[in-house]
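Quick one: structure for this chain?
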Amino acid sequence: MRVLIVSGSSGGHIFPAIALTEALKKIALDALLVLPQKSLKDRMAVDSKGIKYIPAAVLSFNFTSKNISGIYFFLWGIWESFRLIIKFKPDIVVGFGSLNTVALIFWAWLFRIKTIIHEQNVVCGKANRLLSKLVDRVAIAFSQTRAGLNIADAKIVLTGNPLRSNLFRINKKEALDYFKFKEGKFTIFITGGSQGAHRLNVACFEALAAYEQKADLQVIHICGTQDFACLQSDYAASGLTYKLFDFLPQMQYAYSLADLIICRAGATTIAELAKFRVPAILVPYPFAYAHQSANAQVLKEIGAAEVLLDRDLCAHKIKEKFQEYFYHHEKLVEMRTAYQKLPDLDATTMLVNLVLSG
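Got it. Here's what it folds into:
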């Protein structure tokens, strides 16, 4: 069986696609991962021989030079997608969302090739909503997604969100040694997702810098590339015990050690939090069609996380939250336990089986 897997350019799309690609290769299937050129390709721990890059398009309804170039790249991507279908001759095509997957899924449908799409978020994206009418099966990460899809229920399969195979719990001592941290300190993990998040970075650092019990904290902060240089100098002068990264491929060490995380609410992040059962303060990104707000609500409703709106994001409020959890560890225990209310799904295996079933 030859499987063609196509993803959008964000980490939330790419990492589940990588997880499926790796799993299919382990059972000796011929799997090709197709990514937009504007992706995290320089930072992904995956065999580059198994990846094909196609032109990436960013389109809007505004008449601008940037949008004109977006149309050009979109049309170029359609042509390259056609060539890929003809050359690779897949038996099945699996899409993980975004505009850049539409052409490949469309050509597969046109040539009567089996198709599956996977929706990572609670609220289905525009591309997947459109494609759901054409494809053979729709895999969803959250049961709540089902209500928003106007398609036959028999087409929908709840699989959860596939995670990379290297995301497994690390022994606490090993995780402490990895960051050169000490036992007994309260570990805060801050991350804005694969691209970083400026407002989150600034507010969290200012909260930590003003924290009275600095000696009792240790901080893991993944800030993205844009803020790295500035934060590096600020942290160095702060007196905090910290490890700052622009990007951290070995996220399992941070998740295994964190007492509390403050982060955005992308679909992959939610799945990773659930796997490691990390108590969370979620700050949904406000400009993603309410996708992240809906994702965050899933963990809030079961008591595993609390939600802080982006408009309320400030150093004072974050400092209050840090203090609240620092002095009330029983809340963290309750939040970890709350993750047991989520369905226990082996998403990668379920998606592999869906592919094999054709």
